Every structure is written in structure tokens, then in C-alpha cells.
Amino acid sequence: MAETIRFGGRFVMEDSSPDSVVTPEDFTDEQRMMGDAAQQFLEAEITPRDAELEALNYDLTVELMRKAGELGLLGADVPEAYGGLGLDKVSTTLLAETLARASSFALSVGAHTGIGTLPIVFFGTPAQKQAYLPALATGERIAAYCLTEPASGSDALGARTTARLSPDGKHYVLNGSKLYITNAGFADLFIVYAKVDGEYFTAFIIERGMPGFSIGPEEHKMGIKGSSTRPLFFEDVAVPVANVLGEVGKGHQIAFNILNIGRFKLGAACLGSSKETIELASSYANSRKQFGRAISAYPLIGAKLADMNIRTYVLESMVYRTAGWIDAMLRTTESADGTAGDGASVAKAIGEYAIECSIIKVFASEALDFVADEGVQIHGGYGYIRDYKVERIYRDSRINRIFEGTNEINRMLIPGTLMKKALKGELPLLRKVRSLQAELVQPMPLPPLDKPLSKEAFRLEQAKRVFLTVGGLAVQKLGTRLEQEQEVLCSLADLMIQIFAMESALLRSQKIVNTSSGAASEKTENVIAMTTVFVQEAMERVESLAKLALASLEQGDHLQMQLSILKKLMRAPLSNTVALKRTIAANVIRGEHYVV
């Protein structure tokens, strides 16, 4: 994995080898055991009490979270020195994916173990870690993360909650409010952001019961009804100076990097829900009969199941590829004895993959929305009835495009962060653009495309060239005004998303094919088919996005010249995706579950 170090954002201009990516096929026995433990906990404790949890039973949620803590499911990210398991990110990603089937309970657990606990894991002092992490790992204490305010959501630094040092220098006095706080109804510990002296954005650890700290009523939500979501109010809350998390004025380092992890883990949760939806939809399609036969026998239903399975495969490839990268990067911060680095080095390590975390968040939330919508459609009228879980998945999925920064904000961050890295000299982006401009005037004959996935590899390279062409033109034409042209930025973001998705699926499929020693199997044929379909359809989106951006940047003869270059970059033979989807669908229908 050494070649991935400092790799964040480089996928748009450099190639990776299949051996460099982590995939589910690489899971160790220990990692699979953690997934199995989570699955057994679900079946034994959560499923039998699902209705009670969805009715927002605080006591039951806390009781079951503590049982999860006894099994180690809450302490996976907590270092062993503080009572946790200290697992790698691939393991904790598998836990998040598996627990996603627990619906709202999974959200309560995720908010606690992720954005609630990780700020202390990564940025706490030794004393803070010793004071809080052991109880967080067991579930004795439950955590919540408090960033959003009535007047600031995506604009986190616009927070109005203030903190002022007391005259004796022993406390910070907080005043203000927070909104939409998950776990607020039963959390014991709150990671709260406030501006010291109204200026210095800072994180604090606040405990339930501190005088002046109160919690408002439950919000009545569209979905995730079994999770607690309430506002918080601070009226002259005296917080000991020892409860400052990180440094005064450096709260943004904690907030934004914990959001990166939150975005990534949201992707894992969406993956788990997508797999569950495929199970529900394929099973229903096999049992539901219309016009004398199961609806799964009809090609249009099969096509839906195939599309659902393909997007889930791509998402799974993206998620675990990035988990491997984050693991490798965090290891660079550790000391010789395995102790995690200081907050600044951890923040830099996590921030290296901010682009990929935002990409996963956007792709995952929109993929699950697609999968859930098709799941409801396959169920027909029954999919609209609460007795069927697919109805709940459909409602619950909608919040994911808002959580952890809206998809619109994340789309702005993706190319914006790339450009900042390039201007700092961290990425040779502009040099690559200039090199490509010289290549574009040369003939570009099609290479041999007769080996498995060779056409898809070629098309991925085409997509990267399209991005560099459009992105280079945007920088040349707009300069610093580019950040104001949100439509162009959105097109660039979507191009990057498609490239990362295609490459992740392609590398995984190549790895599967390579490790099969050339022997054809149902799995190799299936992953080749899924990658072929996704890449071809993604390239159609790439062409459309490029045309949209070019038309906003050029006009007249200059536009026609750019479109002719685009046409040159898009040349490739087409595959029969109808036939490929029928094969993929047959595998899903036969197994009644997500199929690789």
C-alpha cells in the first residue's frame, strides 16, 4: 500500500494497479469474524425488537447499545489502551455496513462510535481519553456530535454559539444553541463547537447535567424515526478549561476531518442498506406472480435488479478501496509502539482523502436513493405500505443526501479541494493539463481491446483526459472566478465522481480476474459484466457533463473545436448492455441477494 501514500485526488491524473487496492475479497478471517459478530447481534437482539426501537424507545436503545458495547461493537475505533479494540478502518467499515440493517438503531450507534467518539480518539489529550473513552467503548456513556445551528448548517464556521473565559480562568462560559442533534435524547457526552470571544472556532466536551445546559423536544421526522433528534440550548454553561478539545481556535481541524470520516462511514451504511434492499426486492420479485408467472421473469424487473446490483458493486469497491487508503495514511502517524500521532498529524492524514470521502458520500447517498426507489417500484403498491421494510428504507434513505454536508456542498468541495492541492504544489495537475494539450493534436488510434476489461481500462483513461481537458479550460477561462461558477464546478465534481467510481470497480474486477489465474468462473464473468455495463453508462454521463461544461465556457467556432476534441476522446465500440444485464439479473434472482 506504500504507493498510495499522499495519493488523495491523484486518481484523476494517475493510474493505480489492481494490487494496490483493498477489496472485500481481501478480508482477513478476523475482519470477517467482526462482521459475523455484528450480524449475530442483529439477529439475536435487534430484529426481534425492531418495532419497539422504531417507536423511539430511549431505554431500549440505550440497553441494546450497552449490549453492543459488551460485544466490542462500540469500541472498534477506540485504542486498546483505553478499553477498545483498536481495529483497522476496513474492519470498522465492515461493522458499519453490517449494522446498517438495524435502521434507526444503526444511526444511533454510528453517531456514537463515529462522529461522537472519534473526536476524542483522534484529538483528545491523554487525560481526556482516559476519562471518557473506556465508558464510550462499553456504552456506559453515549456520545453526540453538535455542529449544526439554526442559522448555520453547511456554513459550519458561521456558528453563533459563543464561549468566553471566566475571570478566574477556570471555565469557558457557553451561550447559544444547536439543532438536529442525533442521540440528544439519551446522550451523556456532547462534542460542541463554539466561538471563543465570538471569533475562535473551538471544540468542547460537554456533559449532560451541566447547569444551564438543556435539551429541547424531539423533532418529528420523515424517516429515521427510531433515532433521537433534538435541539440543545446553552445558557451560561460553565465548561472546565480541561474540556477544551484540541486547541482554542483550531476547532475547524476537528470538525472538518471528523466530517470526512462521517461522510466515509455514511457510505458504508448506504452500502449495507443497498444490499438489504436487493435481498428484499429480489425475494419479493420471485414470490409475486402476475399474469401467471413470477414478476422476476419479466426483463424490465430483471433490469432493475441488475442496475441495483451494479451500483452496489461499484459503491462497495469505492468504500473499501478508500478504507484501505485511510488505514495506510493513519499508520504513517503512529509511533514505533503503535500509539496514534497527535491531533495535527491525524488531521493531516484524514484530510488527505477529503476528496474521496466527499465523493463516496455523494455517490453512496444517491446510489441508495436509486436502489431504494427501484425496490419500492418492484414491490408495487405493497412498497408503499409500512408493513414492508422497503417503505422504511425509502424514507430513511432521503436524509443521507443532507447529512454530513449536503450533496451540493460536497460537490463544491470535490473540485475545490483538488484545485487547492494543485495550487499548493501537492498535485501535478496543471502540468498534466499542459502535457495533455500537446497530445490532443496528435492522432489517437484505438488500441487493441481484445482482452477482458481492456476496453474499460481504455475508457477510464478517456474519462481522465476529458476531465483534464474540461478542467484545464475552466481554469484558463475563469481563473479565480471558477469558484463562483457553481454549475461548472458541479460538472467537474460529477466527472470526478464518475472517474473514481469507474476506476474503483475496474481495479477490483481486474484483481478478481487476475487472482482467478485466468480460469473463467461465474464470479469473474459477473464482475466483468457489471464493470462493462457501469463503465459504458458512466461514459455516457461523462460525455453529457463535458458538453454541458464546454457550452458554458465557449461559444461559436471555439465551442465546435472543443466538441470535436471531445468526440475524439470518446471513441470506443459499444457493448450489448441489455444482454449483460440479463445475465447479472439472473444471478441476483437465483440467489435472492446481492451478488458479486
What is the rounded distance between the termini? 24 Å
Total of helices: 19
CATH architecture of the domain at 427-591: Up-down Bundle
CATH superfamily of the domain at 427-591: Butyryl-CoA Dehydrogenase, subunit A, domain 3
Largest sheet: 8 strands, mixed
* Strand content bin: 5-15%
CATH first level of the domain at 427-591: which class?
A: Mainly Alpha
CATH topology of the domain at 427-591: Butyryl-CoA Dehydrogenase, subunit A, domain 3
Helix/sheet category: alpha+beta
Please outline the helices and strands:
Layout: H1 29-46, H2 50-54, H3 58-70, H4 89-99, H5 104-116, H6 118-123, H7 126-138, E1 143-146, E2 162-165, E3 171-182, E4 189-196, E5 200-207, E6 213-215, E7 229-240, E8 244-245, H8 251-287, E9 289-290, E10 293-294, H9 299-331, H10 343-351, H11 354-379, H12 389-397, H13 407-423, H14 429-439, H15 454-478, H16 486-515, H17 522-553, H18 556-569, H19 577-591
Parallel strand pairs: 1-4, 2-4
Antiparallel strand pairs: 2-3, 3-7, 4-5, 5-8, 6-7, 9-10
What does this structure look like?
Among the domains are: 107 residues, Butyryl-CoA Dehydrogenase, subunit A, domain 2, CATH 2.40.110.10; 165 residues, Butyryl-CoA Dehydrogenase, subunit A, domain 3, CATH 1.20.140.10. The chain contains 19 helices and ten strands. α8 runs parallel beside α11, α11 runs antiparallel to α13 and α15 runs antiparallel to α16. It is globular, with a radius of gyration of 24 Å.
